Amino acid sequence: AGTGKFVVGGNWKCNGNTASITQLVKDLNKGEIDADVDVIVAPPMLYLPKVQSTIDRQFKLSAQNCWVSEGGAFTGEVSAEMLADANVPWVILGHSERRALCGESDEFVGKKVAYAIKNGLSVMACIGETLQERESGATQDVCRRQLQAIVNELSAGDWEKVVIAYEPVWAIGTGKVATPEQAQETHAGIRAFMASAVSQDVASKVRIQYGGSVNGQLQELAKQEDIDGFLVGGASLIGDAFITICNSAK
Ligand code: PEP
Q1: Residue 166 in domain
Q2: Is position 1 within any domain?
Q3: Pairwise CA distance, residues 156 & 7, whole Å
Q4: Ligand 1 atom 2, closest CA
Q5: What average pLDDT does this structure show over 124-135?
Q6: What is the CATH number of the domain that holds 180?
Q7: Which of 57, 20, 18, 17 is nearest to 41 (CA)?
Q8: Residue 32 burial (10 A CB sphere; 0-12, 13-18, 19+)
Q9: SS3 18
Q10: pLDDT of residue 1
Q11: Is the pTM for the entire model greater than 0.80?
Q12: pLDDT tens, 214-244?
């Protein structure tokens, strides 16, 4: 397992409004989270300051994306500098929805991760295969290719600021959770790749989250040797469900 605390992210995606987010923050604030878990929530960009000023300190804040380089003439984008300036310590990069729907390439994601780290942010960097890729036996190749593009841009020390989120695309928002064996096998492959591509030290320390229809009781997944946390979409919009997931490592 990676060293460091179990780490759970809640990706709210493009969901919610003032009323529902106010309620969600209230529900989250009622939750008691084990002290040895890092919990990070990623509201839509527009609501980040509101959540930041109302949510308990036990929750760290994340954006769901940022620009690939210094801000400027990039209409509609938010830069890593702005996130750092606004005291948002984390950002999710390379989510499969952005790769698939916004055409983000492996190389672009790699550059984003590097630029975010350069600006002091920590990153949940997402990778994962589609159903077709899994069925054709390409899972490990796809994960390695996506990771290599990040490895190319980082120095070994930068990996302290990265959590890898393995999210099989076929499991995202589908209700199909990878089995503990499937997830463990891929996580172990990711760790082995990190040992060869970066170093044994980084491979043994980096935390690897599983994401994809995570909901409810997840002890079996959390128990796996190479699963160090979860990245949660749908269930992170339901306060008590998310708290249960955060506490599932015990
Ligand atoms: C995600 O998109 O990061 C995710 C894991 O979504 P869900 O939990 O809804 O499958």
Answers
A1: yes
A2: no
A3: 21
A4: 233
A5: 97
A6: 3.20.20.70
A7: 57
A8: exposed
A9: helix
A10: 65
A11: yes
A12: 987 789 999 999 999 999 999 999 999 999 9
The ligand 1 atom nearest the CA atom of 235: 8
Residue 189, both tokens: 């492959």
Domains in the chain, number: 1
In a domain, 107, yes or no: yes
In ligand 1, the atom with minimum distance to the C-alpha of 126 is: 3
Alpha helices in 31-167 (DSSP H): 48-54, 80-85, 96-101, 106-118, 131-135, 139-151
Which of 233, 222, 200 shows the shortest CA–CA distance to 37? 222
Q: How many residues does the chain have?
A: 250
Residue nearest atom 6 of ligand 1, based on CA coordinates: 233
Within a domain: residue 239? yes
Q: How many CB atoms lie under 10 A from the CB of residue 36?
A: 10
Distance in angstroms (rounded) separating the CA atoms of residues 225 and 190: 13
Q: Are 126 and 92 in contact (CB under 8 A)?
A: yes
How wide is the angle at C-alpha 203 spanned by C-alphas 201 and 209, nearest 5°?
140
Domain boundaries, position 48: 6-246
Task: Say yes or no: CB of residue 206 within 6 Å of ligand 1.
Answer: no
